[in-house]
Amino acid sequence: MVEEKYLIMVDSLDNHNKFYRMIPLPNGRFRVEYGRIGANAQSREYDQQFFYDKYQEKIKKGYTDQTDLHTSAKTIITAQSKYRDIGNNEIRILIDKMLVWADRVIKKNYTVSADQVNQDAIDKAQSILNAMTTASSLSQFNRYLNELFLVIPRQMKNVYEMSAKSPSEFSEIITREQALLDAIAGKASKTKPDIKSIKSGNPQGMTILEANGLSIRPCNQKEKDMVKSHLDPETADRFINCYHVENESTRKKFDAYCKKYNIGKSGIKFYYHGSRNANYWNILKQGLMIRPTQKVTRSGSMFGSGLYFAPSAKKSMGYTDSGFWAQRFGSTPHNSNTVLLTVFKVAMGKEMHISCANPSLNENNIRAKGYDSVFAHAGIQLRNDECIIYNNDACTICYIIELKN
After folding, report:
1. 346-363 pLDDT, tens per residue?
2. Which residue, 387, 398, 394, 397, is CA-closest to 254?
3. Dihedral sign computed on CA atoms, order 294, 271, 331, 285
4. Which of 6, 41, 219, 253 could form a disulfide with 223 if both were Cys (CB 3.0 to 4.6 A apart)?
5. What does pTM read for this prediction?
6. Looking at the structure, do residues 60 and 154 belong to the same domain, yes or no?
7. How far apart are CA 83 and CA 332, in angstroms?
8. Cα(77)–Cα(245) distance, rounded to whole angstroms?
9. How far apart are CA 153 and CA 150, in angstroms?
10. Are residues 133 and 223 in the same domain?
11. Which residues pair with 351 in a beta bridge?
12. Structure confidence by residue, pLDDT tens digits, 259-302
């Protein structure tokens, strides 16, 4: 029996961004849906005896079979119904906002919903993004970019406009694509049913937070006063609320990391990290990840591929949806009246103090010199101090701060 097929063609030179879906029907025929990705599809029906003829015809024309990377509509599982409602109203509203923010970005940039993308597609897309950081020519970079567009179908009126015109654009395009992938990755994994609940015979026994090992509560007044006291006056004026957060998985990895490298209380700092609203559900659930992979040197990162934090909230605010850097790298306003800022526990340990850019820094070469992290000082090339770690396990989330946009 024939099975559903999903084919894609992306070509920046000829501005192709097309799909061809082949759907077997119970009456011995099959329907094809085809057209430009993101536009209204056309459809036709054929006898099933012509199924593989049509398939081979499209492959010869340059289409790529991406069936294995996408979930058939008939197999989609809607997982939200698997979770019990969050009891605290403030927290429920906060999480709902995060999920809505991610959904808006996905709907604007992709033609599929998160629950139609499987983990294989996410992993393959990440692998391509990692490879893009090693591209040695403009043509190679754009070939990788075209491969990325094949894996998860994108809304693109003009493929060429999304491509790199010179190597100077590599870093911004990688940043743009990584942010989009993180948004859909967070929602894609959210749509998986909770295995613990299903095995227990009580699929609605856990909240989405419990299912992901998360604990969140509103801060008490003492904690709010403490959080506000560390903000600069401009950011403090925008303060709305704050929440205490624990991710059980990242906290355990953090504790193990500190033990492994003998990093005590004096070597653990509380630093800010800013990001786009659409990224926060993924950050909350998975923790911060060095993206693309820490195994390659990425041009455009002043101090190498690491996780960047700031002692100053004002610096990290620049990477939120209301900040300069987020908008420069492709973030668009989401008509939200709030933005979020996070506070992480960061295992700085023994710091390498520097003042000038060094994109070649990584965990191996700083450890070879006896250091655990990098503290980049404001002055010569920076307006604000920055702190960089090179291991995902060296940080864990502590607070989410909600601010006026």
Report:
1. 999 999 999 999 999 999
2. 394
3. positive
4. 219
5. 0.76
6. no
7. 31
8. 28
9. 6
10. no
11. 373
12. 999 999 999 999 999 998 989 999 999 999 998 665 544 444 78
